[in-house]
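Re: the request from the purification team.
They wanted to know what the chain is likely to look like in 3D before they choose a buffer screen. I agreed to run a prediction and write the result into the notebook, where they can find it.
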Amino acid sequence: MRSDMLKSVLNELNGTSADIEASGVISTDGLMMASALPAGFDEDRVGAMSAAMLSLGDRTSQELERGTLEQVLIRGDSGYVLMTHAGPEAVLTVLAKPNAKLGLIFLDVKRAAATIEELL
């Protein structure tokens, strides 16, 4: 089943780094397709915000002539939110700890997004 395979990719991603706290695959219209989120997280809210932020990032990147959007990174005092395309119809969202080694996470997220794109 596709959702099981997506969940497997997310569990593998979350296991690659202790700095990654959660992840989800969201359709570009904001529906959660698969997630590895901690208890208490509202999947619908995460899905809607991720899709909206990536869409805004796409538009901003185009309007300001920065080329094709690669990722949206949000940094808060409690950690990071990283969103990237996983194919034309999906968004991969990752939550990371505030002291995360971003270079390694970017690499792992890029690999996971490519795998997710193949599955979809």
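For the purification team: The radius of gyration is 13 Å.
Please add any questions underneath this entry.
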